[in-house]
Amino acid sequence: MGNCAAPQITRNGGLAMITRHHDWSPSPPYMLKVIHMDGRLQEFPQTIKASQLLSQNPNCFLCSSESMFIDSIAPQIHEEEDLCLGQLYFLLPLSMSRVPLSLRELCLLAVKASAVLESSLSSRRRKDRVSSGEKEGQSFVRGGSLEMVSSSHHVRHQEMGRG
Q1: Which domains, and CATH codes, for the chain?
Q2: pTM for the complete prediction?
Q3: CA-CA distance, 86 to 89, in Å (whole number)?
Q4: What percent of the chain stands above pLDDT 70?
Q5: Do residues 155 and 35 make contact, with C-beta atoms less than 8 angstroms apart?
């Protein structure tokens, strides 16, 4: 579920140009993210022990989004383990720790994660616009992308075509 883009090299005449794609994610790329079953997203700027979250949620277990597969039991992260920066974790009810994950359950978790992360991204963008003094309806350019500020709907970044 990570987001990584390598620079693209293009030719302009005889010169090679590097275009970097900026990640406007709601947090620095190396935040530790935990999605709770109630839809809450917790972010941490440093590595933490799993026990820090598990002690506050005794009826739950932690698992990494990277270790969840269809028809497999989600491996539990042990209390003494460190949670890694740049990773996405789910805090799930203990009842889910004993049965293989179905396609439906994985899809529901993916939809929940997507909604929570998009909501967090939208919230961060609104805060960034207010703090930078941008006005609603104003167009602006960031890192080669054009975006329209609007409270009525969110317009996704579109790469500006250059020939």
Answers
A1: 26-120 (3.10.20.30)
A2: 0.59
A3: 10
A4: 56
A5: no
